[in-house]
């Protein structure tokens, strides 16, 4: 077999292994998935009428449309925390050391984690989106091309955060530390434009909300689904995704290879 065939075969094996683990131990994914769903229900049914005043009124229906893009990206951040925990458990429990003694394509170990996490994140996004549709979210103005672009942005953002989460898992000594290290991936959406516009925040806080990866991605997704102005947020979101993907990839692979020496 060629080296490419071996890499594909071993990566596919590692992907099946990680999906099997997720199926046998779904509690971690479900616990992380409940956070954006609970926030969605809380902000819509408890704070919806009040919070909608900050976006120009319109009641709950307008606020549902406003927060869904942010909660979809928060779902991605929540789900990849499980990836950091899973990677850290593999490193601390010795299975990675066992893999290193076998004749397998070494990067396939990380590729399996990344591919499995991306699939789980996309499924989680679909589930949260379904809950949003059930409680009233509608995107009647989005064209098929805009829906495709929105899905592509979600997939690219998921890939970027997954590689960062893998790096966090590799440098964490245990699962608890990995979970703590990855918490910014779910906290950053709370400090973005996910729930209120940036210009409604205090002046000293606006740079924190604006100059981070979640805000341009949220505004781009919001523009694609709701027809609002995207402006410079589109290319900023893509640049953030590409930069985080490259950073996470080189951080993860260098750490993984260094630990194996």
Automatic annotation (TrEMBL):
Its domain of life?
Answer: Bacteria
Query: Which Pfam families does the record associate with it?
Result: ABC2_membrane
Q: Which UniProt keywords are present, listed alphabetically? A: Antibiotic resistance, Cell membrane, Membrane, Transmembrane, Transmembrane helix, Transport
Cell membrane among the record's keywords? Answer: yes
**Which coarse location class applies to the principal site listed for this UniProt protein?**
membrane
InterPro entries given for it?
ABC2_TM, ABC2_TM_bact-type, ABC_2_transport, Nod_factor_ABC_transporter
The UniProt family comment states:
Belongs to the ABC-2 integral membrane protein family.
The name under which this protein is listed is Transport permease protein
What species is this protein from? Streptomyces tunisiensis
């Amino acid at each position: 077999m060629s080296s490419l065939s071996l890499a594909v075969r071993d990566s596919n094996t590692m992907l099946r292994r990680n999906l099997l683990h997720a199926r046998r131990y779904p509690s971690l994914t479900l616990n992380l998935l409940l956070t954006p769903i609970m926030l969605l229900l809380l902000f819509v049914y408890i704070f919806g009428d009040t919070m909608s005043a900050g976006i120009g009124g319109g009641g709950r229906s307008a606020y549902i449309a406003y927060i869904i893009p942010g909660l979809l990206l928060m779902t991605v951040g929540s789900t990849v925390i499980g990836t950091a925990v899973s990677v850290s458990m593999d490193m601390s429990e010795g299975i990675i050391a066992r893999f290193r003694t076998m004749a397998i394509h070494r990067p396939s170990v990380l590729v399996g984690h990344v591919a499995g996490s991306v699939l789980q994140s996309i499924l989680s996004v679909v589930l949260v989106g379904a809950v949003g549709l059930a409680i009233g979210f509608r995107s009647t103005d989005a064209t098929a091309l805009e829906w495709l672009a929105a899905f592509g942005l979600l997939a690219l953002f998921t890939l970027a955060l997954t590689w960062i989460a893998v790096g966090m898992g590799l440098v964490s000594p245990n699962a608890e530390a990995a979970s703590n290290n990855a918490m910014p991936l779910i906290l950053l959406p709370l400090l973005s434009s996910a729930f209120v516009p940036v210009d409604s925040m205090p002046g000293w806080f606006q740079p924190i909300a604006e100059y981070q990866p979640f805000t341009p991605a949220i505004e781009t997704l919001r523009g694609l689904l709701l027809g609002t102005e995207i402006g410079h947020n589109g290319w900023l979101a893509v640049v953030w995704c590409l930069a985080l993907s490259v950073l996470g990839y080189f951080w993860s692979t260098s750490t993984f290879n260094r630990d194996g020496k």
